[in-house]
């Protein structure tokens, strides 16, 4: 049975075309598409069929799910979350146990080769018993669900790179999704938690263009991970002037100076927090006076103290081309 | 006035992108006049500090038209004091800015009624007129 188009669903929900165009304009902006592409985006996305999505939560803290589900309600982004057919997510679905697993297998069968697989959490390889769902190990469930998926979106740093479960000494033998599945297009939307709008935008891109957006070498969408936090940080001018906070309560901190010497990992962290922000656009960690922890980078937990400077200032001073170019060059 | 607006901020808050942006707007406006070519500049994709964004908006100012659209959060359209140069700001329902653009055009596309919405409107107006006419007939019958 063909699932309805987005246009049909929007009409049924009383969403006007103008509202949809507004959504398309803002999403095009997030995906770094030219505004001249908005009309085409609206046509293609409007005619896209409702996609079946299977979402597997593995070794995770539910922070990623919380970030997405509690992000903004209801908003333009929720148009897309309302639009997808979320056929399995055991944290939030009403069904449980075998009933839930039957729903997953039924969706896989009905939409073979067409469904999208979302994964949050890392996969324990040390002992299958560390994390199971309905008696099935995470790795077996991942392999079974990935087999007929059109593509995989790894949500959060745990699914993307192993995250905190993988931190030294990695007691469960945690690995990333891409360590196990190597024959499917995979997008990593890292972050602890990831930016919800990045997930929406990737879904929109996939529905519109039938492929994932351009990715960096770590398989993250360049539109969100093409620049460092430092590149777009409003405190950057203070960094260039070597005006630093030396403690959390000194004059520098009160003046809003750069947090580099307090351990900010912004210069080596690729993410869009500085522009997209958190908590309904209120702020991002640096704006709240705390250094960036670098949570969207691999092994961020094992890179030394969060409060130790990355290195000498000279190493990070205005390096044109260190941003997108460093990781660019790999498409899905 | 222009120089005062551009150079009033401290060096710490300057990317230096305001003046090039204003020249881009000037060039786009001349293209609109000569070739009817529309341009949209996405301000969220440009490195501008908050104070520079404020300078840009102050420079553009307000012209004769301001429109508010309610579409899952407000959208504000302001024709600047330079006819043909519009500022468009999209908010979501949490009043978070989702998009900010400078349009150089005669009328930003989002303000126009959309064909799909008009088709639905026609069906609604037919139904509403039908209801009204039934209501009127019922009232007339009661009076008789």
Structure characterization notes:
The complex is a heterodimer of chains A (332) and B (144). Chain A is of the alpha/beta class and 332 residues long. Chain A has 2 domains: 51-224, Rossmann fold (3-Layer(aba) Sandwich), CATH 3.40.50.700; 236-318, Cytochrome-c3 Hydrogenase, Chain A, domain 2 (Irregular), CATH 4.10.480. In chain A, 35% of the residues lie in helices and 10% in strands. Chain A contains 16 helices and 9 strands. Chain A has helices at 6-12, 17-30, 38-46, 63-69, 78-83, 97-110, 138-146, 156-161, 177-180, 196-209, 222-225, 236-240, 251-254, 273-276, 313-316, 324-327, and strands spanning 52-57, 85-88, 116-120, 123-124, 132-133, 136-137, 151-155, 174-175, 186-189. Chain A has a 5-stranded parallel sheet with strand order 2-1-3-7-9. Chain A has a two-stranded antiparallel sheet with strand order 4-8. Chain B is an alpha+beta fold and 144 residues long. Chain B has a 5-stranded antiparallel sheet with strand order 1-5-4-3-2. Chain A: Its EC number is 1.12.99.6.
